[in-house]
Specification:
The protein folds into four domains: 249 residues, FAD/NAD(P)-binding domain (3-Layer(bba) Sandwich); 186 residues, no CATH class; 112 residues, no CATH class; 211 residues, no CATH class. With 834 residues, it is an alpha/beta fold. It is built from 28 helices and 31 strands. Helix 1 packs across helix 2, helix 19 runs parallel beside helix 21 and helix 27 runs antiparallel to helix 28. About 3% of the residues have low confidence. The strands form eight sheets. A six-stranded mixed sheet has the order 22-21-20-18-19-23. The protein has a six-stranded mixed sheet with strand order 24-25-26-29-30-31. The longest helix has 30 residues.
């Protein structure tokens, strides 16, 4: 994916040489889409603002009310104090998109097979929209534009049915000659003229000629009549002749072949087909080679490359067969181009691939046919006599006679007509702009909006209290926040409405999230567990992933977790809801996972502190998760201990993460790290609180006890005249699927002391300094205290009473626990020696 251009580059690409403050938006560019024209307009206004062109608030004329002009006018008004006048010769803005419900606009698909390109959300800071029928997109953009007009009145003015007929350079700008098509022609000398300091030419490309092929009327691409008809009644072999190898021609070629063409359905069929991900690098490599040939002035044989490098896999994955199922029965397709190569490098990869799949699907069916003709001139001729078939159209292409039921001509609009009033100024622009396009290459094909530009317009819209209609619906419906994670080489590509650290808002604000995961769990590495940790503790997160790949994996870590009860499984839905293409960041999975985990752990630490501080002050325990009454001196000692622990946790994110993870899971090894990490969240906060409070009480009585970040355990105690003892403070529900209270005595604890909180009971255990495995392998039950294993004593009543009595009583109790254990341990050793 190419980066956004620098501000200087954007201005150089739009500026007309020797014409200060005259800029052209999009009319000489390649790969023209509604979205790319908006991005070009926003990028230019941002660049002019950044480089100081707009500091004096010049009076600005915008000529042309299409996507580029509407966006440029709105953007310039938002970020300056200028008066901006938008001129459009039609009776409405965005006139081309006003006449069809059957054509579809999609913001990103021209950049497929990049990861984000099937996202249906344009994600523009102003005049935003989502993919859909042209009329729907137009309505959304114009609603947003009208909102800006009203809020910034009278600085933004639109003049419909006003045609700019001439442009004259003046001392401080340009004079525009304007014809008001709403009024009678003015008398000589009374023509309408206005002065502007700066002019944006966003005149677009004009309309397609009515008869690109003489004697054959061709409906405009932008009308419902221009969409290839659904059926030809009574014709078992409908014949289509399609002329023009641009994107419009490719789309209509696929539409002509399809039984019931659905552009969005075609995009999904290809982009989501099983196995297509493995072919994306091949497609990208072919495109890179094609553009390199194009830069040298040579054409590229896409058909040859696709046949050699893609066709076997397309057949093996079943994609050719899937497209074949969509074709009209018996369809006969003829595709005419001016060159021997059927496909052109300027077209979108997805449109090219869709046409290629249609061709191959026809080749696999004897009832269907395809042929490619290349010739410079196509002429309509009379039907031969006798005619071999009945057809309303007969065409001659370099001597080849072709019958057709429908002729679709997509040879592009009449650009010269809309540029004519400005020819004097644009005489050299075509050549200089081609040099600029060649210099910046891929960055100009599908332009990107830079981060600074996005921030500028977001802030300006926020200050003006302007929200795009799509976002207004988002707010009013409280729709989820979308984010997406995709494997990208050695990294994970995070994109969406928020940075990764703000995934925390699912917990902190109970915000809903749509988490889009196109890859399998293994592809995400450590970051997959971080995302599941958020989702498993939230009722507001939905995972959009392949259920067959994810369901069993997620279930094993949530509903069927062997370490905790009561975990919920997030919803897993197929498909991509969109809206998660913006602000991509590519990072190694370990780094991205740590960012998420640290934000979550910090939030949990704050929740622990919020609950513990009132408890230290007055035994306050809302909801009674701690379920203890501590004497004043015990609480004071706990508070002092917590202050030291809290400082350490704040300073060392790994220390905090390790402490929390082992507090909720008894198993301390790398194989269970992800499973344990996922358990640490709001749904387990009460038991984490209880376990932390008990550990603090014991640490207050046992001097020099603190958290540790390296295994074994999460605590360490420094005894006078002895080595450091590792400890494990644990409030787990289960150990490897069994109830903690039933298996704690037989579990292979790796530490020298264990502090357990078993559901509502509080247990304290101490084992000998020697590793557990060196004592005895015959394990006692929970109530056994004969020293033949770790002593796990049920002291719930004694411990609660001692904590309530005071620090001295608590220390005496713990000393007695140690003494009894050593006595039992000595007897066990002597019994073994005998």
């Amino acid at each position: 994916m190419a980066d956004a251009l620098l501000a200087e580059d954007v201005v150089n690409g739009a500026a007309v040489r020797d014409r200060p403050n005259l800029f052209v938006i999009g009319s000489f560019d390649r790969r023209i889409t509604f979205y790319s024209q908006q991005v070009r307009a926003l990028s230019l206004v941002h660049a002019l603002k950044e480089l100081g062109y707009l500091h004096a608030d010049p009076r600005i004329a915008v000529v042309g009310g299409g996507a580029a002009g509407v966006t440029a006018a709105a953007a310039a008004t938002l970020v300056t104090g200028s008066q901006v006048v938008l001129f459009e010769s039609a009776d409405s803005l965005l006139p081309l998109q006003s006449t069809t419900d059957r054509r579809r606009l999609d913001p990103h698909i021209y950049d497929w097979p990049a990861h984000y390109t099937t996202d249906p959300i344009a994600d523009l800071p102003i005049l935003d929209w989502e993919s859909g029928p042209c009329r729907n997109v137009r309505d959304d953009v114009l609603l947003g534009f009208e909102d800006i007009v009203i809020r910034l009145a009278p600085r933004l003015e639109r003049r419909l049915r006003h045609q700019v007929t001439a442009l004259t350079r003046t001392v401080d700008g340009y004079q525009l000659d304007i014809t008001d098509l709403n009024a009678p022609p003015p008398p000589p000398g009374a023509e309408l003229r206005e002065q502007f300091h700066m002019v944006f030419l966003a005149v677009g490309f004009g309309l397609e000629p009515v008869e690109s092929v003489p004697a054959i009327q061709s409906a405009s691409y932008w009308t419902d009549a221009g969409v290839p008809v659904a059926e030809f009644a009574g014709r078992p072999t409908p014949r289509f002749f399609v002329s023009g190898a641009g994107d419009g021609g490719l789309i209509d070629f696929v539409a002509a072949g399809a039984r019931d063409f659905d552009h969005a359905g075609m995009i999904r069929l290809i982009s989501e087909h099983p196995g297509i991900a493995a072919l994306k690098p091949v497609l990208t490599d072919i495109d890179v080679r094609a553009r390199a040939e194009d830069a040298k002035g040579a054409r590229f044989d896409f058909m040859g490359a696709y046949d050699a490098e893609l066709l076997p896999a397309l057949n093996d994955t079943g994609l050719v067969a899937a497209v074949a199922q969509q074709l009209r029965p018996g369809v006969q397709l003829t595709f005419q181009t001016q060159h021997a190569e059927l496909f052109d490098v300027s077209t979108a990869t997805l449109n090219r691939l869709a046409a290629y799949l249609t061709i191959k699907a026809c080749a696999g069916d004897a009832q269907r046919s395809f042929r490619h003709l290349h010739c410079g001139v196509v002429a309509r001729i009379d039907a031969p006599d006798p005619a071999p078939v009945a057809a309303p159209f007969w065409l001659d292409c370099a001597g080849e006679v072709v019958p057709a039921d429908a002729v679709i001509v997509r040879r592009g609009p009449q650009r010269n007509m809309v540029r004519a009033p400005f020819d004097e100024h644009l005489a050299s622009f075509d050549a200089t702009h081609k040099e600029w396009l060649a210099r910046h290459g891929d960055a100009t094909l599908v332009p990107k909006l830079s981060g600074p530009a996005r921030s500028l317009f977001k802030e300006a819209a926020r200050s003006a209290d302007i929200l795009a209609p799509r976002l207004q619906r988002l707010v009013s419906n409280q729709l989820p926040i979308p984010v997406q994670l995709v494997r990208e080489g050695a990294n994970i590509r995070w994109s969406g409405a928020i940075p990764a650290e703000q995934l925390l808002r699912s917990w902190s604000e109970k915000r809903s999230f749509e988490i889009i995961l196109p890859d399998a769990p293994d592809a995400l590495g450590a970051v997959g567990g971080a995302v599941l940790r958020v989702a498993c503790h939230s009722a507001n997160c939905r995972l959009h992933a392949a259920p067959g790949l994810w369901s069993q994996h997620v279930r094993a870590l949530s509903l069927d977790s062997p370490h905790a009860e009561g975990m919920t499984m997030p919803a897993i839905l197929a498909g991509n809801p969109g809206g998660a293409a913006q602000d991509p960041v590519s990072l190694p999975p370990g780094i991205l996972a740590r960012r998420i985990h640290r934000s979550l752990d910090s939030w949990l630490l704050a929740r622990l502190d919020e609950h513990l501080q009132p408890f230290f002050a007055s035994n306050a325990d809302p909801g009674r998760p701690i379920n203890l009454k501590a004497a004043n001196d015990v609480r004071a000692a706990m508070a002092a201990t917590w202050a030291a622990w809290h400082a350490s946790f704040t300073d060392d994110a790994e220390l905090l993460n390790h402490f929390l993870r082992l507090m909720i899971c008894a198993v301390d090894d790398d194989d269970h790290r992800e499973a344990a990490q996922i358990l640490v969240g709001p749904s387990k906060l009460p038991v984490i609180l209880r376990g932390t409070a008990v550990a603090l009480a014991i640490a207050a009585a046992w001097d020099a006890t603190s958290p540790k970040s390296a295994r074994p355990g999460n605590l360490v105690r420094l005894r006078d005249g002895d080595s450091a003892w590792a400890g494990h403070g644990c409030a787990a529900d289960m150990i490897n699927g069994d109830e903690m209270s039933l298996c704690a005595a037989s579990f292979m604890w790796q530490t020298q002391f264990v502090i357990l909180v078993v559901k509502s009971a509080i247990e304290v255990s101490r084992i000998a300094e020697r590793p557990f495995a060196q004592i005895d392998t015959d394990q006692p039950g929970l109530s056994d205290t004969d020293g033949s294993g770790p002593v796990i004593m049920s002291i719930s009543r004694d411990f609660i009473d001692a904590t309530a009595a005071g620090l001295a009583d608590l220390r005496t109790l713990l000393a007695a626990v140690e003494e009894r254990h050593f006595e039992a341990l000595e007897k066990t050793i002597m019994k073994g020696a005998a």
